[in-house]
Structures are given as structure tokens and as C-alpha cells.
Q: What sequence folds into this?
């Protein structure tokens, strides 16, 4: 079972570094291959840190 906030919504974490992105300047986009929702924090986006989709394994910059 995944982490959740006090209100019962799932915690959103950066797929690259794993930090909680709630209330931050983060990006949300569908995986180009399977459409799974991906979240990335501003720092990982700025540094072009690689990410991997947890559902299909697609990797991107």
C-alpha cells in the first residue's frame, strides 16, 4: 500500500529522486509509451535527471 496524505489522497513523489512533490513546482505528464502519470520535481527537470516509468520501464531525460 502506498503512502498517503492526511486527507487520504495518494502522496505524489518525483519518479527520479523520490521526494514528496506536494506543494512544489513539479511537472505532471503521461508516460510517452503507456500513459501512466509521471511526476518530476523542478530540480530533476532542470538537471535533466533520467527517469524511468514504474509501469512500463520507459526511460527519458
A:
Amino acid at each position: 500500500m502506498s503512502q498517503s496524505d492526511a486527507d487520504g489522497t495518494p502522496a505524489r513523489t518525483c519518479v527520479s529522486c523520490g521526494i514528496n512533490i506536494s506543494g512544489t513546482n513539479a511537472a505532471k505528464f503521461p508516460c510517452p509509451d503507456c500513459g501512466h502519470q509521471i511526476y518530476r520535481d523542478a530540480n530533476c527537470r532542470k538537471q535533466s535527471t533520467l527517469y524511468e516509468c514504474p509501469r512500463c520501464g520507459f526511460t527519458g531525460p
